[in-house]
Amino acid sequence: MTRTLIIRSAGPGVSVQDLGRPGHLAGGLSRGGAADRLALAEGAALLGQDAGTAALEMAGAGGEFEASEDIRIALTGAPMRASLDGAPLVWNASHLLPCGGRLKIGGCEAGSYGYLHLGGGIATVPMLGSRSAHLGAGLGRTLQAGDRLPIGADPGLRGTGQRLDPAARCEGGTLRVVAGPQTGLFTPEQIRAFENTSFRRDVRGNRMGVRLTSEAAALKPGGGLTVVSEVIVPGDIQITGDGSPFVLLSECQTTGGYPRIGTVLPADLPLAAQARPGTLFRFRFVPLEEAVEIEAAEQERRKTLGATLRPLLRDPRSMFDLLSYQLISGATAGDDLERDH
Amino acid sequence: MAIASEWPRISALGTDGFLVTFADSLSEPANRAALSFRDAVERSGWSAVQETSASLVSAYLRFDPRGISHAELLTALRGLLGRQDWFAAPLPQGRRLWRVPAVFGTSLAPQLGEAAHAAGLTVEEAVASLTKNPVRVQTIGFAPGQPYLGELPPAWDIPRQSKLTSQVPACALAVAIRQLVLFPVPAPTGWRHIGQTQFRLFRPETEQPFVLRPGDEVLFTPVDAETLERMKADPDGGARAEVIR
Q: Domain ranges in chain A?
């Protein structure tokens, strides 16, 4: 029998995502993939599998899920209220989801995109080399109650009951930027003002990008120059007609004609993706050489996240169901904590 | 990254890409240069280059900075740029001429009259002008498989509408600023909807998901609504391609 994840209910923005489909820019198809790629790396580390393994991305809210057999799961990205048969589950950790158990994932407590990873990954049929839904391109769709997703074979490496300390990224902060083809359209004064402005994430934002607003004067590129439409990439900061920066994310279009003041480093894009409306940001230009080093170090760090895992020990102060544990005596199989009752 | 004052200009884009820009406005030679130079980068076999694409007047390449440094690749790009006059380069081989049946005007494409008026032409003159010569796929972008076609005669230098049309159907043909766009999927647009085809441009379920390639040429053939309706049964919507020699 095929291992299956059954969707009992789903929030409005739940979709299958992996690292997307690079290589189709010339055809007008952007890479797409998870809004928070770091979360994919973290889920992969928790379950001991490849970072390209497809997971469920949950924008804003999760849903109710059930598995046809015992499966391993991991929860990463924006922390959400999660429970298994009513007992709370720790976020940024791996757990056992037993056959028939009811996994409930509610709204985000911080951030915007939470991820549910499955041991063996989601094994839907890839399209153009990826399982990611790309809603803008009409590839795939959001999930609905009644959907059943096939799960791949799980070698079970690393078991369950592990946690990791995620890099903080739901509270905004500084986005590091490299100069690009149109940075020179802005005067040094404008660049300085841009770096000295606190921006707030606007309510307008989705997997294509997020708009930022500020109290400062609108940014206007010099010379009234229009830009001939050209390739745009995730991280590009377009300055739109009203002078507001718009940071492009994974599902952005492939070409655009707005001047770009610079490009946010891929390492910092999870911050932009996870921000909720109202979150504060600053921008800081870094030299290209430094940016390349930052990226190389971040890629290396993501590969070795597995070495940072710790056993999932529950803090008695946070165990509301303390009385249901056998605390004093008796023989156990040693996995009480994992079962989460 | 250093930016030279003359065209073409090379700039870093992000932490893993370069953009080679040939002009600051669209022209046939600049588009030719972008298409030819991208083709040359593709054929150069630089192992660290992971992807290339061309847009209207620029070529982009994405690479693995762990495989080659920015400085080394910049030197290689400068060498390739200096090898010939890219504005006069032959276009890439293997281009095709597509003959695409289209209904102009009628209720299927309600803005033909308005667009013709803006161009200072009668409706008949407009259709004749749009179907006389092939137009080149100058770039594919914005949406999967979506071509920008041109360059149309100067009369067609008409602006986009100030208000968006809330939705044009898939396979719609629209005009503005001496260019035509064919829509792969239903979309809101500021371009005027002047023709309707049955030509599916994005076929993700097939080996060749993007039907048109930059450099291809397209000649629109006027047909009536009944003829177009019959073409719905044809996967290519009646379009036929031949290799340009």
A: 4-163, 173-301
Could you tell me the pLDDT band of residue B87, with boundaries at 50, 70 and 90?
A: very high
- The larger pLDDT score, comparing residue A128 to residue A317, is at A128
CATH top class, domain B96-243: mainly beta
Taking the domains of chain B in order of start, what are their residue ranges?
A: 9-88, 96-243
Region for residue A313 given its phi and psi (left: phi exceeds 0; alpha: psi -120 to 50; beta: otherwise) = beta
- Residue A220 has what pLDDT? 79
pLDDT higher than 70, residue B232: yes
Q: Are the C-beta atoms of residues B59 and B1 closer than 8 Å to each other?
A: no
Asked if the C-beta of A124 comes within 8 angstroms of chain B's C-beta atoms, the answer is: no
- CATH number for the segment(s) B9-88: 3.30.1360.40
- Top pLDDT among B147 and A225 is at B147
* Best of A227, A231, A252 to mutate (most B CBs within 10 Å, chain B): A231
**Residue B89 amino acid letter:** A
A24, A182, A228, best to mutate vs chain B, most B CBs in 10 Å: A228
Q: Which residue of A has its CA nearest to B22?
A: A228
Q: What is the pTM of this model?
A: 0.90
- CA separation for the pair B151, B220 (Å, rounded): 14
Q: What span, in angstroms and rounded, lies between the C-alpha atoms of B75 and B78?
A: 5
User: Are B12 and A179 an interchain contact pair (Cβ–Cβ within 8 Å)?
Assistant: yes
CA distance A129 to chain B (A): 11
CATH class of A173-301: mainly beta
